[in-house]
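job 3f2a | input accepted
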Amino acid sequence: MCLGVPGKVVEVGDDIHQLAWVDVCGVKRAINIGLVCEGDPHELLGQWVLVHVGFAMSLLDEQEAQDTLAALQSMQAVGLDLDHESSRVGG
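job 3f2a | predicted structure (91 res):
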């Protein structure tokens, strides 16, 4: 399964060939913005992007980003129980 995580763009270079930095739940990560940047990279500052394997895949509005983060946190809480159950079933 592929999963994208919302991150807020907090730092960019002078062109799309330089990595940008996003804040993902308080952790800064370097990402490639080439797929979402159509002009000056500085226009992305403060924008939310969907990040997958180091690439910004699409732009998100803040509400969509917050809703996605909340859903991911809920899945993590449920996932811990599911991991425990699957280990019991297999063993």
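job 3f2a | DSSP finds one helix and five strands in the chain.
job 3f2a | closed
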